[in-house]
Please model this.
Amino acid sequence: MSGATGVVSTRPRATSARLSRLPRQIRKYVLAAVLWIFALGFIAPLVWMVSSSLKRNIDVFTAPMRWIPHPIQWANYAEVWLGDHSMLRYFGNSLLVTSVSVAGDLITSSMAGYAFALLTFRGRNKVFFIYLSTAIVPSQLLLVPRFMFFQQVGLYNTLFALILPGLFTLYGTFLLRQFFIATPTELAEAARLDGASEWGVFWRIYLPLARPMLAALGIIRFVGSWNDYETPLVMLSDDSRYTIPLGLTQFVDGDGGLSAGLAMAASVSSVLPILIVFLIFQRQFVAALAFTGLK
Amino acid sequence: MTDVIVKSAPAVVQHRPARSRRTPTRVGWLFIAPNLLGFLAFTLIPLVAGLGIAFTNWNVVSGLGAIHFVGLDNFVELLGDPLFWSSALRTVGYAGISVPGTMLLGLLLGLALNTDVPGRAVLRVIFFVPHIVSSIAIGMIWLLLLDPGNGPINRILRGLGLSSTPGWLVSEVWGLPSLVLIVTWSGVGYCAVIYVAALQSMPPSLHEAALLDGAGPFARFRTVTWRSLMPTTTFLGVTMLISHSQGFGLIAFLTQGGPGDSTTVLSYYMYEQGFQFYRFGYAAAIGIMSFLGVLALSVVMWRFQRGRGLYT
Model:
């Protein structure tokens, strides 16, 4: 710290003087303009996706590019939802996998996170140390053994192979442990004096406190699970069990080509649910990401 | 609400779990039991098994009885396998460019979004949205955008007077750079959001002190901002290194490691060996080597940041 200030005082002042000669207001507007132009270019691929999803296949690549489709081709969506590879089924599968595994994760993670943070019992630190030591193991390393396991117990090519591992995550456990560690222990002591059971203390006092964190974990896991491609790719073989990301690949032809309009309509359909969830819970989502990043 | 969560993070040190009162052992274990069961079944045991499989040769087709212990054979073969080394090199190139690139752009964006620029909330959403889109949807968009013949990007480039446009995903030269471009695009907003949160939790007194010392904006950035962002930078660096070195969805969907094997990174090579050639022992060995590499790099990064942050 002292070293830092030492350096500061010897730095040349010329740069700052030159910059501050530009009036502050103008600098602000220039920055804003640059940022907005950059943002529009940045989001253009997604806008292009939406626009193309409403075009006939032959219109997607016409030059010059038209942002507003003409004629508007709603039939793409009808085909995607009701056609041969109806996304309805993929949606149902994704919804089932995601909701069950996220709900389960919220329960198991909050219980364990609470115990690791606020309960003192024999063996706790040893168990937590084992948890910690597996934290940076890449999930890919676990894929082969999990695959073998599910194959042996007959759950390969079922949605259980996706749901079961999602019910317990290290990420959730760590996140909630960090949260509960920062909550005061006095609450528990007071409640215990009043005769509350250990479960009652957790369920009625601490869990409600954690509501924003649970919402955040829920969304982060929802997005992760909804978008997961590798696990279903390895664990499922049957078209009818596909989840959305795997289902999306059905809109690619055998030779790798896309029916452009259809593919984009399918993509838009797959993105909409998480986009809506994200827009509603933006604050919690970002807060949770920040929370994990600030430790 | 946001503030409560974020600000409570530094308080971790003050509220150590109470040592005064012990919970009955049984109760404590009951609380962790559901999670522990899952942890054992889907993390710890698979992990140990994965380590074990790497020392066997086994293919699913012949069943569990056909597992043979082969000692270090897989690793010996791996060390002499040119495709392993070239995949490792590509992984280093892929992650080594996309991770720092994404972080640098994210930092610049974060700094810009931390000012009172008009429409800040909307800008933040715009930059963040690609992060929540699945890699397959992203892949679909870019597959069309980067189409060498008719794709809008090449059309724009031709419009700008470029006579020979890149083949992007179908070219051996441009395949990997295309993937870097796409993954950077989708990750920048995430980095920016994390940086903004870190910037906002920075005590303003630090800046004021530097200002009093007469430091210009660049000096202030270098001595105060950059140094207090050090823990965040390390966090992003390590977590993104882990996730990008495993980067799979985009590659599997867009290029399947090709053309040739010009985009075969370790994660894809492992998938190929394991789930296409059913060489599970060999695949596990690749996984272990890749993990060791990431581990070593992460340790180096932690070491590097130690003593360089402002409040460490």
About this structure: Confidence is low (pLDDT under 50) at residues 1-20 of chain B. The beta strands of chain B are 56-57, 68-69. Chain B has 14 helices and two strands.
